[in-house]
Known about the structure:
- It contains five helices and nine strands.
- Helices cover about 20% and strands about 30% of the residues.
- The longest helix is centred in the C-terminal third of the chain and has 12 residues, at about 180-190.
- By secondary structure, the chain is α+β, with helices and mostly antiparallel strands.
Amino acid sequence: GGVGLGVHGWGIARGGTEQGGDPKEFSLEDLQERCAEALDVASYYEWIRDCGLEMYPRFRGIERLRRRDGESFARIRIPEGVAQGEGYGIHPTLLDGGFSVVAAALPRGNGEAGDAYMPLGLDAYRLYRPAGGRLYSHCVVRPGDAMGRETLAADIRLLDEAGSVVAEVQGLRLQRVDRGTLGRAGRDASA
């Protein structure tokens, strides 16, 4: 089976770097070449839905998506119809879009819908500078983590057009959830 991931949350993100910690730069071309398999974005969102998670249009910020087992790379944007807002270091829908590419990095197996994972926590978040309305998301699943495990961990970097790190999440931890539980939660929320 496959893995679906949906991240829908709001919070306050404060910027800063560790002492002496300048963010690294990446070659966007190298990341694109390394993640050689292109995925159709509409089909990817359908696959996530089939796993039991709904990504509503306001949270569908992926424009282009590429992958290989253990890694994914995507062009993300603030979706149409979502106010840009003032005062965000990074817009919440961009952060959500960056997180939603984790499922693409997991081994696809036969491509059928499988387990759904929800965020459990993260080890560290750093915002190095304010983000614009478009970024690239680069996700690497931690070695040894694979589909079917109760928990997974991934590292995500959000990059600007030059490949400079704008923000990074280290150790995004995900917990497998039962699709029946997700269905009940969705029905309860709409009641």
